[in-house]
Amino acid sequence: VGMLNPSRKMDVENAEAYSERHEMDGFERETLLKWSNVSTRRHRYDSEQLTTVLEEAGASEIEHHEVLDGLAIVTVAKVE
User: Fold this and answer.
1) What mean pLDDT is reported for the chain?
2) CA separation, residue 43 to residues 7, 21, 27, 39 (Å)
3) Given a cut of 90, is residue 71 above it in pLDDT?
């Protein structure tokens, strides 16, 4: 299984800075800023939290990879 989750670093300020550094505009920038707004209100994770949730669900071989300059985490795990 693979999933993308916002990290603890994801917030509107950091998302705006990221979009400026990477010269994002239009739909791409708008979507990132909306995601940062929603994740700040609802959920942000660190690798340890994601590992715990997945292990409790029976996953193994869990790997985490930061993306978007650390604003998000791609997690890959084996689920049987």
Assistant:
1) 96
2) 9, 25, 23, 5
3) yes
Longest alpha-carbon distance in the chain = 41
CA distances in angstroms from 27 to 24, 44, 74, listed in the order given: 9, 22, 22
Q: What is the pLDDT of residues 28-53, one digit of tens each?
A: 999 999 999 999 999 899 999 999 99
Token pair for 67: 């993306």
- Determine the Cα–Cα distance for residues 40 and 58; give it in Å rounded to an integer: 28
Q: Identify any residues that bridge with 75 across adjacent strands, giving them in sequence order.
A: 3, 64
The radius of gyration of the chain from alpha carbons, rounded to an integer in Å, stands at 14
Tell me if residue 9 falls in helix, strand or coil: coil
Rounded distance, CA 35 to CA 55, Å?
26
